[in-house]
Amino acid sequence: MVYIGTAEASPNMPFVKYWGKRNEALILPMNSNISATFDSSLATRTTVFFSESLKADELWINGKQFPPESLDKAIPQLNIIRELAGIQMFAKIYSISKVPVAAGLSSSSAGLCALALASASALGLKLPAEELSIICRRGSGSSCRSIYGGFVEWVRGDKTDGSDSYGVQIADDKHWPELRMLAVSIEETEKKVKSRAGMKQTVLTSTLYQKRLQDIGNTLDSVRNAIRNKNFQSLAELTMKESNNMHAVCMDTWPPILYLNDNSRTVIQSIHDFNEGGLRAAYTFDAGPNPYIITEEKNLKSVLELLKKMSFIKHIFISKIGGNPRVLEEHLLNEKGKPV
Ligand code: DP6
User: Fold this and answer.
1) Which of 9, 29, 132, 294 is the most buried (most CB within 10 A)?
2) If you measure from the C-alpha of residue 209 to the centroid of ligand 1, how many angstroms do you get, rounded to a whole number?
3) Is 146:11 a contact under the CB 8 Å cutoff?
4) Which atom of ligand 1 is nearest to the CA of 140?
5) CA of 306 to the centre of ligand 1 (A)
């Protein structure tokens, strides 16, 4: 007996960051956080194949098998799904990512969301979106926001079991058609401090982090309003300040975590220079040196002209606000678990 399921999901870009956990094992965040989902041009498509013939779980990305330690975020998800379905078979995870892994734009949020949806579909589990989002979260926190397109808030929740901590849609992909999100690759090597280890160290050592948590309720209210009112100027300012705050807190962590490099700082300065007559673009950085830029369609050409002057930029992926992830009938593997 084999079970196969396939799904496609896109990564997301946070306006308000998830940085710090209140429960490591259940992946529960210290604060609610808000993102928008990229469109399908940046999506990851994943087929999950459960079979008694497999001797261990396997992960394949873009045709290449990854070592067992690369499955550390996938296995908690697979175990939840296996338990719900009452099976013990191992799984082969076979993913095709539209963004080259080498671009250094970590798309684990897309990969783990596609995995949760594909494995639930393979085993015929009909789960509500909240439960699917929680399964995504148990793999990697940020992936619980990719369960919806449009603008999504990962609500922190209060319960100790995490049953009220999942992604909720604020507005769908039709809400703000003029908005553009750019994923810019300036460095392709792996980051030295992974976000999981980095955020843990911040919670343990940064005193500035307490101030961040005190202020974040107001930031969340303002970001929700800026999204609802499609107020670009407000969203742009809040996004940049929020990114700078996360990286200030990283600097205040001991030992300090330095994700930004000289090229990242050149992008920051250039966007501020570009914005002198009024806010037309904003940057934000996750746990690495590669910027995301937001702008509106009317200013996209000038933003691209600005970025093209920076010779250190390797790739620019341009996206609209994307729709919901999808379960697909067409699989990447056949009944024998071989690529089709
Ligand atoms: C900086 O979701 O990768 O991108 O839950 O430990 O797997 P784990 O962390 P992850 O952290 C992402 C942090 C961030 C900010 C964000 O996406 O909100």
Assistant:
1) 9
2) 16
3) yes
4) 7
5) 29
H-helix segments, 64-128: 74-85, 108-122
d(CA 146, CA 154): 10
Q: What is the pLDDT of residue 98?
A: 87
Residue with tokens 């992926």: 317
Ligand 1 nearest atom to the CA of residue 16, by list position: 18
Sign of the CA dihedral running 230, 233, 236, 242:
negative
Kindly list the distances between the CA atom of residue 39 and the CA atoms of 130, 151, 174, 178, in Å, as whole numbers in the listed order: 21, 12, 12, 13
* Atom nearest to 139 CA in ligand 1: 7
C-alpha to C-alpha distance for 8 and 46, rounded to whole angstroms: 6
pTM of the model: 0.97
Domain ranges of the chain: 2-173, 179-319
List pLDDT tens digits, range 210-259: 999 999 999 999 999 999 999 999 999 999 999 999 999 999 999 999 99
**Per-residue pLDDT, 106:** 64
In the predicted model, residues of the chain with pLDDT beneath 70 are 102-104, 106
Q: Which CATH class is domain 179-319?
A: alpha beta
Burial zone of 75 (CB within 10 Å; 0-12 exposed, 13-18 middle, 19+ buried): middle
Q: What is the pLDDT of residue 108?
A: 87
Predicted pLDDT of residue 189: 77
**330 CA to centre of ligand 1 in angstroms:** 30
Q: What are phi and psi of 120, to 5 degrees?
A: -65, -40
For residues 164 and 161, what is the distance between their CA atoms, to the nearest angstrom?
8
